[in-house]
Amino acid sequence: MRSEPLVISYLRGYSFTETAANTGINPKRVDNALQRAKKKISQIS
Hints:
Layout: H1 4-11, H2 16-23, H3 27-44
Helix pairs in contact: 1-3, 2-3
């Protein structure tokens, strides 16, 4: 699963539940993917 669409959805202000509904992905997987993406971003900056 690629996290870019999830991050874009998050940055646009969608909740985990809304993102999950829009992508058909389990909300827990959305949450986990966003947490991993946030961690990677924080390591870069």
